[in-house]
Amino acid sequence: SDTDERTEMEGEGVVVAEAVAAEAEWETEDLRCPLTSRVMRDPVLLHTEAGRSYERAALEERLRADPYVDPSTGKRSPEKLVFTSNAALKKMLDNNRGPKRARDEPATPEEDLPLEPPDKENIFSSDRGVWLAVRQLRTARDSETRVNAARGVAVRCVSSASVRETYDPSLRERVIPESVRAVVRYGAVDPLVAMVRRQRGLETEAAALALSRIAMWHESAGSIVAAGAIGPLVRVLEGHATDLAKANAARALAELAGTDDNKVWIGAAGAIPPLIVLLEHGSAVAKERALVAIARLSSYPDNKPHLADAIPLLRDLGMEASSWDQKTRARRALRNLGHPLPTSCSELGWQILWS
What we know:
It is a single chain. The chain is mostly helical. It has helices spanning 2-30, 56-65, 87-96, 109-112, 126-139, 143-157, 177-185, 189-198, 202-215, 221-226, 230-238, 243-256, 260-268, 272-281, 284-297, 311-320, 324-336, 345-354, and strands at residues 43-46, 53-55, 83-85, 158-160, 173-175. Strand 1 and strand 2 (53-55) form a beta hairpin.
């Protein structure tokens, strides 16, 4: 009945309100400068392993005192630290800083996540399905629920597709732009990044998978970077996560490496050495995804010196890989690095055929 449905929706609203209140503290902490403890207005990204953003003036003052030390970790760099403007985070902050409410204040449930699903009369609505998946993610109280919710978000982002239909044959999936936009709009990115930060087994696998699929729609990459995902994804590669978690993290970084700015940040965060290790010692899936990431990162000049150790592996793949896609990516990376392989007669024939 209408009364029962209203009661059910009111109950769901209470759960959402409690979850948003519980998350408000860590959400605003992600937007605060580590040096000033205040919400940033002119954020810049410091290119270190930690990959943290700071208020520009505060970071400039700290680096004037010691330009070699990461303020967050205390680690000393052999070279002077550099930073760049975090345009994606600044845009997000500006969009959420209205005349009546600063971002220091936690968002209300109505502003953050609709209390009722869109098109609630149609139980088959894709937008309703996305809303339900994100609501479960944001209200999850235990690890199993968070894992299932993250997997649900990941499923909503793509449709199954044949190799010929998808833009990237190695991934065998096709993104659904409308669903990804809804996932970002309803606030799934921040809790997914928080799951990756915690590095808890299946949570890491599921959250990295969801982020990689969200990043497949490149318009959403800014939201993922602004949420501080690059550093945690790199730490998954470096740590003791499962091979699948590392494969998913490599895939997420590969998808984010669609712009030169992101290639700089990913390289500066220390992603290249663990990607090379994954390319050499990972499972077949992990190797393939590490190769995609390395091929994309190799096109940016600042990353090339760090990829020298990958050249022998790329040569082997370029000559002997069983997959044509792997051969092509390895050869592209080698060309970017200034070590091209000779073109065989059969490859020259294919190039002429497809030209």
